[in-house]
Design brief:
The structure is a single chain. The protein has one domain. The chain has eleven helices and no strands.
């Protein structure tokens, strides 16, 4: 397959799996096992992560604006609510940041282990299936719930554990409204995805190639529509519907790879 074809394939894969609860990292490991992706370059991975970050920024632009503007232009309850939400996001980011910094080398080694991904995809299936048991969701985010979601996000650094699936499912199981859990999860993803891109960049960027711009654009567009689809699924309380897919891919990976 030509290089540009691989770039587009990876960009589409990144755009879909970054937001649907099926693990982008797990699918990347499987893709590497199926086709030669080792020579694609760190620069492409950074570009694809930036593309999906752009998708989140566009989709949640109004929410982000309403979150930031009151800090500088409002007083009273609106400003306090914005500061509180940002504080909860910051607290929830800490677990993943610590795990990434401390165990980065060990985790990186797992990205070439398809057998491990098969196991973690089955674990993702169990997490998603558990949301079928969660019915009443009215509780707001507080510090303990935010930290618990943050710990779920830290666990999702492992390839095969879906970040969106584990964080939204954790929020739902803690009693948070589905839409609120999804909003918190995806806004929380912004510093995490950018942080992952920075760690990849530290590893050494190859020379810039024009194909990277195509990869960024494709992952942004595909990611935006994937995110829209995911929000609809979450609002319909159908997160569990992805459990059979993750289970099937996990079992196939264990048996044949």
């Amino acid at each position: 397959m030509a290089y540009i074809g691989k770039v587009i394939l990876l960009a589409v894969l990144q755009g879909i799996t970054e937001f649907l609860p099926i693990s982008s990292s797990g699918h990347l490991v499987i893709a590497k096992a199926l086709i030669d992706l080792e020579s694609m370059g760190v620069g492409l991975e950074v570009s694809l992560h930036l593309g999906t970050t752009i998708a989140i920024l566009i989709f949640y632009w109004t929410d982000l604006r309403d979150l930031i503007v009151p800090i500088f232009k409002e007083q009273g309850a609106k400003r306090r609510d914005s500061l509180r939400f940002i504080w909860l996001l910051a607290a929830a980011t800490v677990p993943a940041g610590l795990v990434g910094l401390i165990f980065n080398d060990r985790i990186e080694a797992l990205f070439s282990n398809a057998h491990f991904v098969g196991i973690t995809l089955i674990a993702t299936a169990a997490i998603l299936a558990a949301t079928a048991l969660s019915k009443r969701r009215k509780k707001p985010f507080n510090l303990p719930r935010a930290l618990t979601v943050g710990m779920a996000q830290a666990m999702a650094i492992l390839p095969g554990i879906s970040r969106s699936g584990s964080t939204i499912a954790t929020g739902e199981l803690l009693g948070v409204e589905s839409a609120d859990a999804a909003r918190f999860s995806f806004i929380l993803a912004i510093p995490v995805i950018l942080g992952a891109a920075m760690l990849e960049a530290i590893g050494g960027l190859n020379e810039l190639r024009w194909e990277y711009a195509i990869g960024l654009a494709v992952s942004a567009v595909v990611g935006y529509f994937s995110l829209r689809l995911m929000i609809g699924i979450v609002k319909a309380n159908r997160l569990w519907a992805f459990a059979p897919y993750c289970l099937a891919v996990g079992l196939v990976t264990l048996i044949f790879m």
